[in-house]
Design a protein that fits this description.
- Helix 3 packs parallel to helix 6 and helix 9 (189-197) runs antiparallel to helix 10.
- 75% of the residues lie in helices and 0% in strands.
- The protein has helices spanning 2-15, 19-32, 40-64, 68-78, 81-109, 119-140, 151-166, 168-173, 189-197, 205-236.
- The protein has 237 residues and is mainly alpha-helical.
- The two termini are 23 Å apart.
């Protein structure tokens, strides 16, 4: 699976479809840090959203760069659809880790913050970025060409889901009480962003870690649903 994941990444970078989400994410970061000093957790909250957006965009371009014929060839070579899907996940996880390292270390190395970053803040920000990136990538799984052949519709629907996820806190606040449970169906992007933003003020670090854990559980649930749907789809073909 590692060899296949490596092959997928090489194939993806040769197509150059990664350039637009990569460039947009980096430009957003550079604009954020175009002046200093910057507050620590406020900045990390913003860059975690950048990573969420970038991972969703990059995830869709990554998943769409493989043709159906090439996918079937990979499945045959590796032995099962489950192994192929896990290889996909591993390949998607690599750029998320790289972006996380960049977003966490860049402002520290370039002295962009108003004060030194505490160790507990560093760990919280790092895991927050990883989970936000994985959430974005996990959402993109359901809007690839293999599941939604209409590319324009898939892009529009992914964009709607991303926007609703970011504004979920404001949206659910206007829902009537009987519908308040709907907030649990939405990706926990808004709550995690708000938790990182208000760490140590209105939200305790323990609560933020709970949000990180919930975001990870939500991501795993999305991946399991995607794998189930994909395996069923492969069995019918």
């Amino acid at each position: 699976m590692i060899a296949l994941a490596r092959f997928m990444l090489r194939s993806y970078t040769r197509r150059h479809t990664y350039f637009a989400p990569l460039a947009a994410t980096l430009i957003a970061m550079f604009i954020l840090y175009s002046y200093k000093p910057n507050p620590v957790m406020d900045s990390y909250s913003v860059t975690s959203v950048f990573l969420f957006l970038g991972a969703a965009w990059m995830g869709r371009t990554f998943l769409n760069h493989v043709s159906p014929q090439q996918e079937q060839l990979h499945v045959t070579q590796i032995g099962s659809m489950k192994k192929y899907l896990l290889s996909q996940m591993m390949a998607l996880f690599v750029p998320i880790v790289l972006f996380t390292v960049l977003f966490i270390l860049f402002p520290i190395v370039t002295k962009m913050f108003v004060r030194p970053v505490h160790a507990d803040e560093l760990w919280l920000a790092a895991f927050g970025h990883l989970v936000m990136g994985m959430l974005g990538a996990a959402l993109s799984l359901f809007f690839q060409t293999a599941l939604m052949p209409n590319g324009a519709r898939a892009t529009a629907m992914l964009l709607i889901v991303v926007i609703v996820s970011i504004g979920a806190k404001s949206i659910t606040a206007h829902l009537p009480s009987p519908l308040a449970w709907l907030r649990w169906l939405l990706p926990p992007v808004s709550s995690l962003m708000d938790g990182l933003l208000n760490t140590g003020t209105t939200v305790s670090p323990h609560e933020v870690w709970g949000m990180v854990g919930y975001g990870l559980a939500y991501t795993l649930a999305l991946v399991l649903v995607y794998m189930y749907v994909s395996v069923r789809r492969d069995a019918r073909t």
